[in-house]
Amino acid sequence: MDNRLCETIERIIAQYDLLANESRFTENKIYGKELYAISDEGLSNHSSAIKSNGTYVITGGLGGLGYIFSTYIAKKYQSRLILLGRSELSKESEMKITELRGYGSQVTYYACDVCDFNKVDQVVRNIGEITGIIHCAGIINQTSIMSDNMTEIEAVIAPKLYGTMNLDIATKDHDLDFIVLFSSISAIVGDYGCVSYASANKFMDEFSNLREELRKRHKRNGKQSVLTGHYGIMVVCSYQMAIFL
Ligand SMILES: NC(=O)c1ccc[n+]([C@@H]2O[C@H](COP(=O)([O-])OP(=O)(O)OC[C@H]3O[C@@H](n4cnc5c(N)ncnc54)[C@H](OP(=O)(O)O)[C@@H]3O)[C@@H](O)[C@H]2O)c1
């Protein structure tokens, strides 16, 4: 791991003064994680966290999953959508935005790399008050741990690690209803040697735990949720769910 990453991880631990453990042993009991399925019925018993007059930031909002969520919110809630991606707008993405606006939502796109704090901060200041964040920006890359290509490894880790922290810090004083981080099942079961992707997603899972602790201490607002997916199947694993359906 290069020095920059090591320093960042040390900074995170120091800054948040917390470390969430996979399992722990207290008072003669072992506590661990448990996965369980949520039934359709369970989902339908929850009310939606999305509001019609809300402002929602969706990073990677023109990508595969991001666009599915953007479309869903645009169609059902006619909210204000702020979409982020690194690329400048292409003809194809302009058409996607036109389609979203056609559902009655106000849509703005910013070419903004979520790994760059100054850019994220600038966008957040431009937007004003934010109701919710859906962090879908990510790069799915199968770089093996045997590869010594640090550029590829960092490219996978950066949007999930720096991106998550930048969004969190830039919006720490906002009255957010929720922040949803798009993780992956690889955070739980590993990724057959693709350690960078699995670790980046694991970071998001643990970050959610840390942020929840900060929320309890009134240092952050809003629920946090991690969506863990595999080949299009998304699973919610969180302290408190932000339900969209
Ligand atoms: N698809 C699945 O089945 C699946 C399963 C498990 C987990 N996930 C997770 O879900 C997330 C979205 O997946 P996807 O399938 O929708 O991926 P995708 O289609 O490749 O979309 C990713 C989006 O993120 C944007 N992006 C990447 N790096 C960025 C950065 N540094 N700053 C701002 N935007 C950035 C890309 O736009 P630009 O290129 O313009 O930046 C793109 O629009 C990922 O985090 C992935 O790990 C997906």
UniProtKB/TrEMBL annotation:
<dbReference type="InterPro" id="IPR057326">
    <property type="entry name" value="KR_dom"/>
</dbReference>
<keyword id="KW-0812">Transmembrane</keyword>
<dbReference type="GO" id="GO:0071770">
    <property type="term" value="P:DIM/DIP cell wall layer assembly"/>
</dbReference>
<keyword id="KW-0597">Phosphoprotein</keyword>
<dbReference type="InterPro" id="IPR036291">
    <property type="entry name" value="NAD(P)-bd_dom_sf"/>
</dbReference>
<dbReference type="GO" id="GO:0004312">
    <property type="term" value="F:fatty acid synthase activity"/>
</dbReference>
<feature type="domain" description="Ketoreductase">
    <location>
        <begin position="54"/>
        <end position="234"/>
    </location>
</feature>
<dbReference type="InterPro" id="IPR050091">
    <property type="entry name" value="PKS_NRPS_Biosynth_Enz"/>
</dbReference>
<dbReference type="GO" id="GO:0005886">
    <property type="term" value="C:plasma membrane"/>
</dbReference>
<keyword id="KW-0596">Phosphopantetheine</keyword>
<protein>
    <submittedName>
        <fullName>Beta-ketoacyl synthase</fullName>
    </submittedName>
</protein>
<keyword id="KW-1133">Transmembrane helix</keyword>
<dbReference type="Pfam" id="PF08659">
    <property type="entry name" value="KR"/>
</dbReference>
<feature type="transmembrane region" description="Helical">
    <location>
        <begin position="54"/>
        <end position="74"/>
    </location>
</feature>
<dbReference type="InterPro" id="IPR013968">
    <property type="entry name" value="PKS_KR"/>
</dbReference>
<dbReference type="GO" id="GO:0005737">
    <property type="term" value="C:cytoplasm"/>
</dbReference>
<feature type="transmembrane region" description="Helical">
    <location>
        <begin position="225"/>
        <end position="244"/>
    </location>
</feature>
<keyword id="KW-0472">Membrane</keyword>
<dbReference type="GO" id="GO:0006633">
    <property type="term" value="P:fatty acid biosynthetic process"/>
</dbReference>
